[in-house]
Write a structure and sequence with these properties.
This protein has five helices and no strands.
Amino acid sequence: MCTFNPKACWLEKETNVQPNIKAGLSMEYLRVGFLWGFVFATIHAGWALIVAQNYGQPLIDFLLKIHFLSNPFVVQVFDMTLAYALVGISGALGLIAGTAFSMLWDLIGDSEPRESREHND
């Protein structure tokens, strides 16, 4: 590993951890992105369901009231097209955010490369 990236030799010698120098978009990044996208879409699908059942305005009123806030918002009438857009856009943004966060985590926050974690069994 030190022959490919000599500047990283100190990390390998001191900690026995090889730095992650793999470039490109791996399936692991996309898996995290899809998970985030699923979570974001599910939360917003839940909100759309609450609005469809006409519980959106009372819920917003209650949540803001218990935080000592007045409510400047009015929940609109449910529209299936807007609900699809809400869920789709939030899912896509979750995919992008999750993928970007995963790549950033590998870049600066994770000391052990993916290859080592996958083969530690």
